[in-house]
């Protein structure tokens, strides 16, 4: 399937006749295009163009292709948008645009949606603390976007009103338009968001010029970001205000495609602002030296983020959703642990924050406070209904069956999505269970059998294997990860895990035994399910474990990140950087199954 074709434009400023005439012309000569994304001010600066705006809003003229806009301010904005917000079809929590008219959609506040396979995030309006309904964004909008950085999905396109502060850092001066500066009309808050979200494309307006910066590197990611700034529609200096792109959705790209870097790629502009003096050298840091490995990223001072922050009435979305907030005590919103507990039990954030939810019965979350027993008893969703949505349940339509390598009575093995190494395998219970430590005895027996088979297989290939599991207290489907390592690195595994733990400010509990199965039995006996837990089974039988407190900041990908450092693969620490095409996955699975066949306990 061909990648989607998207048109981008700068501030329309109500010049809709000129804009849509150009769009229709481009669509006819070089299209068809799937959508138009508008950044900058959408509405007129004066009432002179109000009638022109109304012709499209009222349906007297047609919008040629699906058009999405974020600059929700200007003459006529309040009237048009308040009317749109009252429409029945626009009620509730909508992030894919409030329909103003056929083919015309308002992207309100902030959010993320899928457009022809592309993941599109946006921040509408300008920064303001005035409380204006239209044309501004607030801290809640920023917090909602920051939560996206915790999600596994890569953002393809990020739309903002202004350029972000610092975009000219490290850029080629010969490409910078005359008269453009990094101070006027920029927003430092957006630079923070871009650094966290790491979109593949960042599109902005409001500077009145066209500027396509060289691609730049992102910290802790292998893909580059391309910045495109667009001039306003009908600008007097004839600057480019419309631009076409045709990006392949990141969700369908291989790791090789995602990590491709054009020759003119520069270092990150925002690490320059943070005072980095040699980003190129930092990017090349080797994990061979344990004290200089990737664990520089773990800030021990933030390990146990206590409840704090502002004393206002509104809750911090970032804290409620993830349990921590990078702004700490400087945050203007409440870090309420009780509210986070309620959120963990399925209570709607909007209900917790405002006492009501506009989505009403359309909301999939609870609109009443939950006692602890209520959550354990269930939210009204059966195990069967959860399994239909789970990627790992064999009965789910979402399961990627081509990744499965072996199926038993109680457990199965599958190739990991975005594997760290070619034979990166998951052992999973067939039943929808939250972790392997509390699984039924018959499931544990079969799991250990799989482990022993994998050890034998990898030993024959002159490798050892490391098993680890992140047991999240509110986890969904258990998965024990198995990653093979060269024999030469086996003796260093415990040291590098201990070093990573030290960087995070904790020490592992050590369970020593001659057989890993005995260590697992001890761990199962000790695990009470009252807190999250990370454990790793080392070559030789030793098990390292760490009970993770409720308010402790612990990297979800900790085990993978440590082994990526051990194997000098820091760029593969994030599975999103390692995604393969379905064809590549099938080849990898078939190769593994061919070698594993004589060891497979279910053959």
From TrEMBL:
Q: Which Pfam families match?
A: CwfJ_C_1, CwfJ_C_2
Q: Lineage of the native species? A: Eukaryota, Viridiplantae, Streptophyta, Embryophyta, Tracheophyta
Stretches assigned to the C3H1-type domain: 310-338, 347-370
CDD domains named among the record's database cross-references: MPP_CWF19_N (cd07380)
Recite the UniProt keywords alphabetically: Metal-binding, Zinc, Zinc-finger
Q: Which GO terms describe its molecular function?
A: RNA lariat debranching enzyme activator activity; zinc ion binding
C3H1-type ZnF:
310-338, 347-370
Say which species the protein is native to.
Centaurea solstitialis (yellow star-thistle)
Name used for this protein in its record: C3H1-type domain-containing protein
Q: Which GO terms describe its biological process?
A: mRNA splicing, via spliceosome
Query: InterPro entries from the xrefs?
Result: Cwf19-like, Cwf19-like_C_dom-1, Cwf19-like_C_dom-2, HIT-like_sf, Znf_CCCH, Znf_CCCH_sf
Recorded GO CC terms: post-mRNA release spliceosomal complex
Q: Where are the transmembrane segments?
A: none
